[in-house]
Design brief:
By secondary structure, chain A is an all-alpha fold. Chain A has 7 helices and 2 strands; from the N terminus they run αααααββαα. Chain A has a two-stranded antiparallel ribbon with strand order 1-2. In chain A, strand 1 and strand 2 form a beta hairpin. The chains are: A mainly alpha, B mainly alpha.
Chain lengths: 247, 86
């Protein structure tokens, strides 16, 4: 690894322009759109191979949304499912040699996290009304009135921390996997001549782990989306129950 | 090199080198406890295995993200270390 004056950042994603990563994200979109169009081309009562596959994916997220959010969670299935498929495609693109993972750059992950968090706020306002939205921050009616301002600050800070943790979790996972892969490629390369190296594939176990991480992180991102939506839109009578369960 | 600079660089190198392993020790212990609890739950009630597994994965991701935060900080610190040419 040629270190350039103490530059610690050697990942490929930091040497290419953000437009290249945007182009790869566009490729991921194109792959998903073609896949969706292809698999739903002739819908039939008795599903074929591809239709069966996408139905399995949809039903998985349908069950997940209903079990996390409740019966009104069905309308969040498209968001959670799209996020999962898009992030998974992006993650997997980093494992195919000419590809780069757009999710290994903070630009992509912050954009995704902002989409989620802004939508969560909109849904919270829609579910509670603008007054109820702020009341919920202060937990009015649940705690003594003197503690409410303090809780309001804490809740606002924790709400602001959500997109930060959501984006950094995905970014750091993909970035870390690439760093470890790069370090293993360069550390165990056997020098042949002055400049040439014989690479030994020590990075393959890490790439297998990367395959697992790609799935798990995409899943975690979409299920956290559902959990935030569930917290934002839970009904008031359910709320006390949920609160009692949490303690 | 002045003593102050040397101490600063020493502290920087120690922080960059030791921060991540300390985080990994803590997260390893935590994840071990989490998985142990989830496995016990699954063994006792195999019919709830799916839901327990989902919860376990979310918990593991939360614990792991703390390690990854320190990983990001490790890269920030590492970028400030001078390169030494022998």
């Amino acid at each position: 690894m040629a270190s350039k004056e103490g530059e610690g950042d050697d990942s490929v994603e930091h040497h290419v322009s953000p437009w290249v990563l945007a182009a790869f994200a566009g490729i991921a979109y194109a792959v998903l759109v073609i896949f969706a169009l292809f698999s739903t081309r002739n819908l039939a009562k008795r599903p074929g191979r591809w239709q069966n596959f996408v139905e399995v994916i949809y039903e998985f997220f349908d069950n997940l949304a209903v079990s996390v959010v409740g019966e009104h969670g069905r309308k969040y299935v498209p968001l959670a499912g799209t996020l999962f498929l898009f992030i998974l495609t992006c993650n997997l693109m980093g494992l195919i040699p000419p590809g780069l993972a757009p999710t290994a750059s903070l630009n992509t992950t912050i954009a995704l996290a902002l989409i989620v968090i802004i939508y969560v706020q909109i849904e919270a306002i829609r579910a509670r009304g603008i007054v109820g939205y702020f009341k919920h921050f202060a937990r009015v009616g649940e705690v003594p009135i003197l503690i409410s301002p303090l809780l309001f600050i804490i809740e606002v800070v924790s709400e602001l921390a959500k997109p930060v943790s959501l984006s950094i979790r995905l970014y750091a996972n993909m970035f870390g996997k690439e760093q470890v892969t790069l370090a293993l490629i360069t550390a165990f390369a056997v020098p042949l001549f002055q400049k040439a190296y014989l690479p030994i594939p020590f990075q393959f176990p890490v790439m297998m782990l990367g395959l697992l991480v790609a799935f798990v992180q995409a899943f975690v991102f979409s299920i956290l989306t559902l959990i935030y939506l569930a917290l934002a839109t839970e009904h008031h009578e359910e709320h006390h129950e949920a609160h009692a369960h949490a303690h | 090199m002045e003593v102050g600079t040397g101490l600063y660089l020493m502290g920087l190198a120690l922080a960059a080198g030791l921060g991540l392993p300390l985080a990994v020790i803590g997260a390893g212990l935590g994840q071990g406890r989490a998985v142990a609890g989830a496995m016990e739950g699954m063994a006792r009630q195999p019919e709830l295995a799916g839901r327990i597994q989902t919860g376990m994965i979310i918990g593991l991701a939360f614990i792991e993200s703390l390690v990854l935060f320190s990983f990001v900080i490790f890269f920030l610190l590492q970028g400030r270390l001078p390169t030494v040419t022998p």
